[in-house]
Amino acid sequence: MKFDVAIVGSGLAGLSVALHLAQTRKVAIISKRALQDGASNWAQGGIAAVLDSSDSHDQHIADTLVAGAGLCEEAATRYIVEHGRAAIEWLIEQGVPFTRDETAELGFHLTREGGHSQRRIIHAADATGHAVQVTLEQKVRAHPNIALFEHHCAIDVITSDKLTGKGPNGALHGGIPHLVGQPRCYGLYVQDEQSGQVLTFEAEHTVLATGGAGKVYLYTTNPDTATGDGIAMAWRAGCRVSNMEFIQFHPTCLYHPYAKSFLITEAIRGEGGLLKLPPEAGVAAGTRFMPAHDERGELAPRDVVARAIDFEMKKRGLDYVHLDISHQDPEFLKEHFPTIYARCLELGIDITKEPIPVVPAVHFTCGGIVTDLTGRTDIPGLYAVGETACTGLHGANRLASNSLLECVVIGR
């Protein structure tokens, strides 16, 4: 099969690329499972962007650099932050139903999350990823220039080195002479998961938008599809991979035997949620511990909060700590966190009346395939976008809600 563009992955990054390029090109989207079975669909909190006059690009950049422990690429960070508003406006044009607030400058509610100095998180209640995913999925399914291949697993990219049979020392093994000296990506091999047939996708441009590698860990907020496929394919093809040691742990994953991957959004703490020790800690019930670890308390960056929780659990022999938002108005919680409220209630936890048991869990791969700000990798014809890429934005630790921002800005 031949396409102008073959995109592996169907999350926000992949769909953004597809909708942009399909205006003038024939595009294939290859998805390991159904289109919605990626990490984007699970994202709760929102998208960080400067959308209010009380905020500024410099403040957002500074917050990102601090969270990234000084290892962010400042030029990349500035580029992505400065294009944030345009990315949000594009999503609004696509019809994403962000939560409204008619008193706000842009007309949408902005929340605050850990590590942010301002309210700058635009969201769709507590299911932003799902709202964006559904909206863009409807667009790609209806687009005449986009072909969808669900339940198709990418095996490997096709490069000129593989076609020529060139060995490690550059010698040919009976390959194709006219391709010698032209390292380039020409498409990829894909397995149809239903028939088992291996298909060849020929494409002038191949885009890896395969997400992170969270499922290499036992406890993660990621879906089962997050196995690092794209990163491995690019590495085998000869691309540089960077910062893979920086795996972000989200501080607050629900602690429950029937919901091991259910995330409790950062926005809970942004709206006043407090981390407390449970009674079995041997201290007064409801004792807070974050102020002893960081002056920013519950609004410290994720790595700080996750380490603090881990420290307290190990020090006191705890299986979990409590995240308490029950002091907030019940109607406010039901309106702003309907997904969390409903899921916790199913499991016997009423967040309007009692604290939520939480633990840290693997959440985000901060490193990935080295790219420039157009998604280009070291191999011509091969691109990477989203969590599978490393643009330099995240450094050693991603700032909350910067991931979806990066997906749209670079994807467009």
Report what the structure shows.
The model is unreliable at 167-179 (pLDDT under 50). The protein is α/β, with parallel strands linked by helices. The protein has two domains: 1-246 and 366-412, FAD/NAD(P)-binding domain, CATH 3.50.50.60; 247-362, Alpha-Beta Complex (Flavocytochrome C3, Chain A, domain 1), CATH 3.90.700.10. It has helices at 12-21, 57-67, 74-82, 84-94, 128-142, 160-164, 229-237, 267-270, 302-316, 330-336, 338-346, 402-411, and strands at residues 2-8, 27-31, 47-48, 110-111, 121-122, 146-150, 152-159, 185-192, 198-208, 241-242, 247-254, 274-276, 321-324, 356-365, 368-370, 382-384, 389-390. The protein starts with a strand and ends with a helix. It is globular, with a radius of gyration of 22 Å. Helix content is 28%, strand content 21%.
Overall pLDDT score: 94
The percent range for strand residues is 15-25%
Query: Could you tell me the radius of gyration in angstroms?
Result: 22 Å
Characterize the largest beta sheet: strand count, sense, and whether it forms a barrel. Answer: 7 strands, mixed
CATH superfamily of the largest domain: FAD/NAD(P)-binding domain
**How many domain units?**
2
Question: Which structural category fits the helices and strands?
Answer: alpha/beta
Query: Roughly how many Å apart are the termini?
Result: 25 Å
> What is the second-level CATH architecture of the largest domain?
3-Layer(bba) Sandwich
One letter per element, helices H and strands E, the order comes to EHEEHHHEEHEEHEEHEEHEHEHHEEEEH
Class of the largest domain in CATH?
Answer: Alpha Beta
Low-confidence stretches: 167-179
- State the helicity in percent bands: 25-40%
The outline comes out as globular
How many individual helices?
Answer: 12
List how many beta strands DSSP finds: 17
- CATH topological fold name of the largest domain: FAD/NAD(P)-binding domain
